[in-house]
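Deliverable D5.2: sample structural annotation.
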Amino acid sequence: MSESKIKKVSIVISKGSLEGVYPGLIMANGARMEGIDATVFFTFFGLEAIMKKKADKIKVATVGNPAMHMPSLLGIIPGMSAFATHKMKKEMEKLDIPPVSEFIEMLSDAGAELYACKATVDMFHLTKDDFVPQVNDIINVATFYEKSAGAEIIFT
């Protein structure tokens, strides 16, 4: 069996929580570090990672998250999400994992292509001005598939 290497990945980020955004960013960064072409498509609440006003305000989801190892009822206590987010960000700082906006800038500088989903942008009544300058364009799903030709598509 011949060994074939991945040459291109397309990553879809659809969740707007800290634990929903970072896996895609880390995978895209890892791809670029390995010389793999990376396209990142932000849709639904994943758009928050590329919005100027929201990128660095993304929080940990404490309700309905079984990985929190606590009853969901505790997650609704005022301040619980902020507390969990603060703890996670402190741990990420120790590992030198940058804030979302800095990560987006690093990806762009490394040559990753960053796109917003047109249907979601329209549904949420957003414009290109709502996004960080590193966003290459707002594209529809058909264009995403064209750009993803030959890529491994990863949904986070």
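Annotation notes: DSSP finds six helices and five strands in the chain. The longest helix spans residues 18-33.
The annotation will be released with the project's public dataset once the embargo ends.
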